[in-house]
Amino acid sequence: QVQLVESGGGLVQAGGSLRLSCAASGRTFSSYAMAWFRQPPGKEREFVCSIKWSGRSTYYADSVKGRFTISRDNAKNTVYLEMNSLKPEDTAVYYCAADPFNWGLPRMSSYDVWGQGTQVTVSS
What is the pLDDT of residues 91-105, one digit of tens each? Predict the structure, then answer.
């Protein structure tokens, strides 16, 4: 079983950048697709991006395409989210999640392991 711990959140001004990390424990990490979701204040959790186990296939929500980049280092059991050109509407709790079937689909039900979340706040 994989366990996930996110880090790297914080307060940043609009236009700035942050890099989130998600450290995974468990020997099967490299076989999982990984994703980032976020939950803005008062709203439902939404898909941000995902990456399959090989790292060669990635998917992005339209709202972050061109600004965010997901990557993974299977040797370090870590997935990253590089966020650039941040906007106030990116403010949310960001969660990483693991999909044991390596689909990487943009829906919460595909992921059976979740981290505790890390807060990202973008000020205008």
Answer: 999 999 999 999 999
